[in-house]
Amino acid sequence: MADRRASTLSGPVPRRAVLEMAPYRPLTDGRAEKLRLDFNENTVGCSPRVVEFLRQRLSEGELAVYPEYADARRELARFFGVAEEELLLTNGTDEAIQVFVNTYVNAGDEVVMARPSYAMYRFYAEVAGASIREVDYRPADLSFPLEELLESLRPSTRAVIFANPNNPTGTGVSLEALGRILDRAPGAAVLIDEAYYEFSRVTALGLLGRRSNLFLSRTFSKAYGMAAMRCGCLFSQAGNLQHLRKAQSPYSVNTLAVLAARAAVQDTGYVNGYVKEVLAARDLLCEGLRRLGIRTYPSQANFVLFQAGERAIPLRDELRARNILVRDRSYELAGCVRVTVGTRAQVQRFLEELERIW
Fold first, then answer.
1. In this predicted model, what pLDDT tens digit does every residue of 76-97 receive, in sequence order?
2. Residue 342 lies in domain
3. Where is the domain boundary, 264, 290, 324?
4. Is the pTM of this model over 0.90?
5. Strands (E) located in the chain
């Protein structure tokens, strides 16, 4: 009787894939009133038109009904230059990855991804019980391992997932290289995460009509300044999207996120202006780091990875004490720290504090 009671109190046993996973716990608390250069967010906020549109449209009645997506699908499809049937609204890029994996990956299936990269690729593949094959970015300059990845692809490969440009390295992939990957893995579903597209301007979206194994994701969390809204898009050919919709919760994107996305794409001037400022600030940041004798890696995104050696974690902590947040990545790239690029004024503040403690 005692043994049976103890078994009941311990609860049901999770799946082996979940038991063997390492937890993902981003440090998102205690960031208010600090210079947030740690999560690659927009550092000044979304377009004022987004907030105004929400004020105009929100009411007690609007919040009482389930979300409707027809207007958003039509407007966003027009903005991205795709058919409505080729676009799926998602709860941020995370849900795009989850729905993609849930649709195409069975337990034991082989999934190929580059390393290091966004943790959620491995996270959802592990939840699915996939067999994961990782290909390392080239250590000399952290460039994309194209030939190595091509060699790793096999007829049994079920899915390929990577980012362009990549986080945390900042390095990108050419359209020619993307085409080679799609050609090498015709039987695999290939997801390219374009979360930082606005800063690199390299996209495979134009290949959508010619590549039946191509999937793309975009987010409103970075350049658009709407990380709190959790809104993204997943693109593929219409036939693929029919299957993806079956694997998605019907109301996973909330009404506020849908309204915000509709307003955001109407203010292209605001986003383009912010991106222009970030690119100028990125040049300023790289120049300042080099002046201090700090090695940086090439970046096509809104962040820069730099080499701090054994001082990576102490540097992060000292900057935090000065109300500046950066991200230590030494747990996967020895000695590396990642800093988000904000405005030129924000970068200048970071460089001044860094110089005092370097």
1. 999 999 999 999 999 999 999 9
2. 24-45+268-357
3. 264
4. yes
5. 35-36, 87-90, 110-115, 131-136, 157-163, 189-193, 214-219, 232-235, 303-307, 324-325, 327-328, 336-340
